[in-house]
Each structure stands twice: as structure tokens, then as C-alpha cells.
Design a protein that fits this description.
Helix content is about 55%, strand content about 0%. It has a domain of about 35 residues. It contains 2 helices and no strands. The longest helix has 23 residues. The mean pLDDT is about 80.
Length: about 70
């Protein structure tokens, strides 16, 4: 009969709070940028479609419909 193997606990590395907050900040900035480029459609530009026209060609290059 084989001997039972002992199970060693996994060593979980500690994640610093600073690294976690930095990563969260980067994710938030990237999501905001994706919103402005792909989904804004001029909603944030109060007078005219300045944001829409500024990002128009970029939307087409990314394959995002904007019409």
C-alpha cells in the first residue's frame, strides 16, 4: 500500500497596495480612453460634434461603427 503524500500549502505572494492601486488606475484610464474613442459618439461634446470628428477616422480604423 503506497504512503499518503503530505500536502504542502501554496505560498501566495503578497501584492502591495501601491501596485494594486497603480494597476487599478491604469485600467480606469484605459477604459475611459476606450469610451472616448469608441463609444462617445459626441455625447461629451456639448457644442457640435468636435469629439466625434476628432476620433472619427480612428473609429473606422478600429472597425467601430460610428454612423
Amino acid at each position: 500500500m503506497p504512503k499518503a503524500q503530505s500536502v504542502r500549502p501554496l505560498a501566495i505572494p503578497a501584492i502591495s497596495t501601491r501596485l494594486l492601486l497603480t494597476a487599478a488606475g491604469v485600467v480606469i484610464v484605459l477604459l475611459a480612453l476606450a469610451y472616448l474613442v469608441a463609444f462617445d459618439q459626441g455625447a461629451l461634446s456639448r457644442s457640435g460634434m468636435y469629439m466625434h470628428e476628432l476620433m472619427h477616422d480612428g473609429r473606422h480604423l478600429l472597425g467601430v461603427p460610428c454612423h
